[in-house]
Design goal:
With about 70 residues, the chain is of the alpha+beta class. The protein is built from two helices and six strands; from the N terminus they run E-H-E-E-E-E-H-E. The longest helix has 10 residues, at about 55-65. It is globular, with a radius of gyration of 11 Å. The structure holds iron/sulfur cluster.
Length: about 70
């Protein structure tokens, strides 16, 4: 199964992911960075198995993230 991978340390908190895909992303009030909801933390990387219905939208979010901190693996 494919996974969404977020390199959270790269996030600059622009908020585009949370705007475009609020079912998967939320902005942290603590540090202003994006939180990938229900993701598992592995070292400093957050990983979430990808639901097929989220696939297209996630690809769009990956394209617009200004620091390329989101990937699919
Ligand atoms: S689009 Fe990228 S830089 Fe912007 S909040 Fe989301 S993860 Fe962070």
């Amino acid at each position: 199964m494919q996974k969404i991978v977020q390199y959270r340390n790269k996030c600059i908190g622009c908020g585009v992911c949370a705007e475009q895909q609020p079912e998967l992303w939320r902005m942290s009030r603590k540090d202003g960075k994006a939180i990938l909801l229900r993701a598992v933390k592995k070292k400093e990387i957050f990983v979430l198995p990808m639901n097929n219905s989220a696939h297209q939208k996630t690809l769009e979010v990956i394209q617009v993230c200004p620091v390329k901190s989101i990937k699919i693996s």
